[in-house]
Amino acid sequence: MKKVFIIIGRLSHRTKVIGGVMAVLAVSGSGYLAFASSGGLETPPMLVEAGADASEESAIHTVQPVLLSNSSSTILIGTVLSHETANIFSRRDGIVEDVLVDIGDTVRKDQVVALLLPQGVEGQSAAMIGEKNAMKSQAEAEFRKSQVVADETLISARQEIQEMETELLVAQREQQALLNEFADKEADVRQMTEQAFTTVRMARQVTEQILTGTNSRPGVDIQERHMMDQLGLLNRQERYDMEPLFTQLSKAEKAFLSVQETKKREALEGLLLLADRVLSRAVTLLGATPSVPTEQTGFYTQQELADLITMVLSAQEDILVMKEKLQDAVIAFDMLIASEPDVYRAYRTGKTDGIQSNEVKMKESSLLTMRNNYFVEEADQSMIVEQYKQMVGVADAQLRLQYAESGHRQIRSPFSGTVSKRFVTVGQIVMPSMPAFELTDVPTTLAKKAKREIQFGLPEILRSAVSPGDMVVFFLPEEEEEAYQAEVTRISPQVDPETHTVTVQAKLDDALKLPHNTSVRIRIVDRSTPLFRVPSYVVKREDNMNFVWLMDPETTLPEKVRVSVRSEEGEFAEVTGDISEESNIILDPPDFLALPPGAEPTDDSKQEL
Q: What is the topology classification, in CATH, of domain 1-67+530-609?
């Protein structure tokens, strides 16, 4: 029912209140008032004639909201999540060479679904993969064989004991050969040391030949004035830089002859490094030396300069080769010492009686173990079988590693399932971030609890309307009339700061097979908030907030109250908020209301819904 409230005001600061509606009816003259009829909500606001007297009255039109329901509902957009869906990705960038499966095909775990063009030398990669694959096949064959011959273990154990006894005798005989091997390795290190020193001396002679034109000068230091005049003409500083470096090499070469035998290896490493630096400086000096095409006094020809540079580079290469040889000899000797420290100690002291190599110790220990375990060998067969199984695992790991080193040419499915989507074609460039296939019917832990769920964002103001275990109603886009239900299973404890929503997931019936990422419309019923219908034009918006103006029954002043618009169709809107059936919603914009001087509209916009 529509009510009309009359407020009398003047434009002057002095206020005169004319009481009662009868006083308004008594007003006459050129001014006029348009009273509200009882024709319904469509009646427009009361107007005051332009140019009317300052004491002329104005009327406020109000309307009471209509209660539609003691509960309100909200339609939200959600998405179907399939816990049986997974994507297959390529492990590297590449170009698709072939596609092996398509939509509807069933794939097994680790099945090859596509091939990429190789990155490197395909022949070599294929050969290595073949070798590792053969090793895996051999390990699998041995594993099967161990299961077949489990009943023959006692005979095999006796044979192994006999073989171990033979191996022990062989190891004891080879122990003397191990002493000889120490002598050979030590001789190799000594020989490489001498050859390395000779190489350093030759490098010094080559450098001296280039600097002075001869390598047979008496043992005096070379100074800049002794060098060939044509050297370093493009940058004479190179001549001065060469002088102290060459002198240092000459002195180090002489000092090496008096170094103790135990320190020669360390001294020789420094000498090789110094010789390499001198040769590098010689190359730089020759680079600063001008040359001419043909013979000319005071200059090198281009061929002569090239020959000198070649001679230096050759000497430098000899230095590097000798460093590697010396290092190999030292490493071999050190590794032998580390593998047989007791034998090496006996070799040094000369006390070889009663020594045992690691091989002899290992054979004796193995033989003792085999003899002790002979009678329990039958119980140990399960352990042997497990060992062969582990060998299969090692071979398989090596094969996988080879596949990885060969560039992950195969795209393999990490899951079992059915291909629902294919994203790649032959010749297409793929990357690890791009899915190649989508699978359905993938067995997962989440799928055991719920194969499919719907996920949606619940506004924080409706947080209390949904709890775990509640049933929510949803609709499919193509079936607006048929309603489905889902059980709420998960509610996020956090509110999204941007959307002001919490994430909710609800379990679908397994019989309802909706595709992954299907859009649905969820209806949320809030039984604690009544729903009202009001004219659409009374709902105002300011700073992302919807509100209406109410007439305060006590002060008869406008009051701003926040509301939430649930739906709006044509002339009417469905809202919730701090209003009731007795509330008087003002139809007129409050800016046009004539209020008593000093009276201000109240603002209740801070109220929470």
A: 2.40.420
